[in-house]
Specification:
binds farnesyl diphosphate, 1% strand, 76% helix, mainly alpha, Farnesyl Diphosphate Synthase, binds magnesium ion, two-stranded antiparallel ribbon, 324 residues
Amino acid sequence: MDFGEVLSILKDDLNKVEASIKENFQSDVVLIPTISNYLSNGGKRIRPILILISSRLCGYNNGNKHITYSCVAEFIHTATLLHDDVLDEAEIRRGNPAANLRWGNGASVLVGDFLLSRSLTMMAEVKDPRAIFYFSEASRKMVEGEVLELTNPFNLNITEEKYIDIIKRKTAALMSASCRVGAILAKSLSTEEDTLSNFGAKVGTAFQLVDDVFDYISEEGKIGKQVGKDITNGKITLPMIHLYNNASQEDRKSIEEIVKTGNTQKENFNKIVDLMKKYHSIDYTMDKARGYIREAKEEMTSFKDSLYLNAILSVADYIVERDM
Ligand code: FPP
Ligand code: MG
């Protein structure tokens, strides 16, 4: 099954998720739906897709709670993007000028807060304390990941282990919770819940590794955000960690100069990308991502063959095969 087929088997549910998103960001304070609607276009809806499939895989088939939780996960995710773009001084998101650039940092932070608050009331309405627990734990971990990242700017000596810890929190936690909540909805066995949670964590880690590769080698038009922003912001991600640890003494000096002076204009950025090619840092990072996907899929061997098992495995492949 390819990712297009996954979208087609989920078509009805995904349409309901879109309707729920539009309905639940409404407010008489018009700037709130304006910004929410603006940002809502162009998202890949990976977290809703994970919830929909994992709930179906575990046998959920009576009710609309999977739609509500999909909307909750997308609202939490959108809130983090609004906040993250303020932190990163982003100029483009999902192919459009970033909300912080159009409406300012204050409006972006507050609309993020609105979406986060809305996700809380929506969860309270469903009244499942375990789903509330896992989504709030994921939110806590995301904040911790961002704070860890914030406190390690321009740190070329950050270890691969520390970096993986950061991305597990800032990105993998919400995907892990999304998969788990699907199982919770279906009142699944706790072993199935744990399996799906591990699957989501691994897929989420791979997702961020690929995202970090795109920041060096993709095109703005494809990924809908700026390329080269990570080193300008002093974000030391795996391609750079690998490069710095493997470069010759002389190359390390040029890397330090470029990263530490923040002089990351085109010529210097291209030099870094060329060095990454020379030392196979992009290949190394993509291999790591593929390794996480392999492990994620191995987690799922306890589920018996089904349409939804194939669908979730196909989402895992899409994470490393996507070009956006
Ligand atoms: C994107 O990383 C950012 C995240 C995955 C997490 C952001 C989380 C917060 C700002 C904490 C706030 C939390 C809540 C619950 C509101 P990136 O900058 O590497 O990716 P990008 O290239 O898409 O910007
Ligand atoms: Mg960012």
